[in-house]
Amino acid sequence: MEGGTIQLTKADAPKMSVRPLFAPLRRGIAMRLLAFILVFSSAVTLISTAVQLYVDYRRDVDTIENRLAEIQASNLSSLASSLWRVDVNQLRLQLEGMLYLPDMQSLEVRESYTGMVDPLNVSVGRRQDRAVISREYPIVHNDRGSPQTIGVLYVEATLEHVYQRLIDTGVAILVSQGIKTFLVSLFTLYIVWRLVTRHLVHMADFLGQYDIRKPTAALRLHRRAFGGEDELDRVVAAFNGMCISLERAYTDLRDANTELEQDIIARKHAEAEIIRLNAVLEQRVRQRTAELEAANKELASFSYSVSHDLRAPLRRIEGFGQMLAEEYLAALDDRGRHCLERIRGGTREMSEMIDSFLRLSRSTRGELMLEPVDLSAMTADIAAALAEKDPERRMDLDIQPGVVVQGDRRLMTSALTNLLENAWKYTRAMERPKVSFGTIQVDGRVAYFVKDNGAGFDMAFVDRLFTPFNRLHKAEDFEGTGIGLATVQRIIARHGGRTWAEGAVGQGATIYFTCWEGDGG
Q1: Percentages helix, strand, coil for the chain, rounded to the nearest 5?
Q2: Which residues pair with 134 in a beta bridge?
Q3: Cα–Cα nearest to 160, from 62, 65, 66, 60
Q4: Are 473 and 455 in contact (CB under 8 A)?
Q5: How far apart are CA 438 and CA 512, in angstroms?
Q6: What is the pLDDT of residues 415-427, one digit of tens each?
Q7: What is the pLDDT of residues 47-78, one digit of tens each?
Q8: Measured on CA atoms in the order 364, 369, 375, 377, is the torsion positive or negative?
Q9: Above 90 in pLDDT, residue 447?
Q10: Lowest pLDDT segment from 84-88, 240-244, 247-251
Q11: CB 56 within 8 A of CB 169
Q12: Helical pair 160-192 and 29-84, crossing angle rounded to 10 deg
């Protein structure tokens, strides 16, 4: 072949007969190609099978979940009636009826009266330790208009039948797809060998013998011509042209060899330094990431403890306080009633503090969903909601229109709600309360503000203003937990901005904040 043209001669025939027809299949890239095809096809088969099995699994599990939900919706009232009457036979009949539902493993009703020495326990079926979905539903009886939890329904559904169906489906898919994959792979391998691999072997042999310092005949492919020029012809033509150029440039490259070697050494040194710096940077990133993950886990664990471990005893205190108020209030003297009211007020205050702490914790977690947020419209909506809660109050509102910021709508709503609630609270003693919202330029950047003419604060204590649970006013003067401005500061910090305040005692306060660079207002 000259210039990429295919030419088959008799002289080439002995060379073609020397190599076995399928020699490339026994070594080189042929077997690796087959292996890659099989591995990739098998991976695709496994992934598709896994997806199908997962879909089937989720469908079966959802069916079981729906069945459990139907049990909760349909049977709890009748179980409550039977348990209230202590009708053991009726309870057992009802449980046995539910046990006939598909995939049900065991059901149990346990009586849970406070102080019971020998509580009632009725169960059917046999429990097992694995492959189950279990639920506990409280059994509530309405006694003269007062709901009481009198027991617990424990339901256990087995997943063994689900797993068996998944195994059967998976085996059928893998066997059928495996046979198909193997046949397609063999056919693909033959086509690749016929059209490409054997010619690549010939080109590799030619390249192995090529020496730029000696004149060499042009590379030729031994095959029949079908139609026009294809990719291999263009590769051969390009290689032959490259050989000519290389031979011409060989002398110039030899003279520049010393300079090239020095440049290579310098590049290697630079690459080694870059690799070292990248390793140091990756180590620092891993360290910071590990520290951040540990801090987030501690925060999540602490939040869980606050929302669950503290609420349980608080609910008990509140419940017993309610019982004392309803049943023994007449038997208490004035001091006793005062103490009881203090206890109930303390539980309410503690509950509000827990809610405030959780809101503060949630303001620093979760992914930001950035979008254009109309702060002017949001401020008007929040102010309208506050006015509905306290319709007797009259307040002058001055809202700058068209203030839009790029931010998370949920978090920005929380921040503005805290700011406006503070302004609403601290202006209630004013004859003409006024609240303003707008923007100003601070150091060439847009700053947003909420201003009121209320109680204000002493600037000497401004650093304490954004500290959680730290209040500048007495609790008897203004209610609250001291968490609102701390929540605002954390939300604004997540939006790449900062928060500060200005005010004077009896002359009102102004809270400023900024957001992302380049936001509009």
Answers
A1: 60, 15, 25
A2: 156
A3: 60
A4: yes
A5: 10
A6: 898 888 888 887 8
A7: 888 888 889 888 888 988 898 888 888 888 88
A8: negative
A9: yes
A10: 247-251
A11: yes
A12: 160
- The structure's pTM equals 0.38
pLDDT at 319: 80
- Provide CB contacts within 8 A for 491, sequence distance 6+: 363, 411, 412, 414, 415
Better-predicted residue by pLDDT, 322 or 273: 273
Question: Biggest alpha carbon distance in the chain?
Answer: 124
Could you tell me the two tokens for 230?
A: 């294809």
**Mean per-residue pLDDT of the chain:** 78
* Vertex 112 angle, CA 110 and 113, to 5°: 140
For tokens 């000259």, the residue is: 2
More confident residue, 82 or 455: 82
Question: Nearest Cα to 223, choosing from 249, 207, 202, 251?
Answer: 202
Tokens of 423: 């302004």
Measured between alpha carbons, how far is 44 from 185 in angstroms, rounded to an integer?
13
- Rounded distance, CA 252 to CA 232, Å? 30
14: confidence class by pLDDT, cuts 50, 70, 90: very low
Alpha-carbon dihedral angle through residues 188, 193, 197, 201, given to the nearest 10 degrees: 150
Bridge-based pairing state of the strands 434-442 and 396-399: parallel
Nearest to 378 by CA among 417, 422, 408: 417
Poorest-pLDDT segment among 298-312, 328-342, 495-509: 298-312
> Nearest CA to 108 among 64, 78, 152, 158?
152
Residue 68 token pair: 């459990």
Question: CA torsion 102→103→106→111, rounded to 10°?
Answer: -70
Q: Where are the alpha helices (DSSP H) in 19-111?
A: 23-26, 29-84, 88-99
Q: What are phi and psi of 62, to 5 degrees?
A: -60, -35
* Contact in structure between 29 and 197 (CB atoms under 8 Å): yes
Token pair belonging to 446: 């847009």
Q: ∠ CA 23-24-27 to the nearest 5 degrees?
A: 100
Query: Closest Cα to residue 440, out of 342, 356, 514?
Result: 514
Kindly give the pairing relationship between strand 499-503 and strand 434-442: unpaired
333-376 pLDDT, tens per residue?
A: 888 878 877 787 777 767 766 766 666 566 556 677 888 999 99
pLDDT of residue 120: 84
Q: Quick check: 513 and 447 in contact, CB under 8 A?
A: yes
On whether the CB atoms of residues 186 and 224 are closer than 8 A, the answer is no
Tokens representing 519 are 């936001």
**8 A C-beta contact, residue 516 and residue 496:** yes
Asked if 152 and 140 count as a contact pair (C-beta separation under 8 A), the reply is no
Average pLDDT rounded to a whole number, residues 483-490: 80
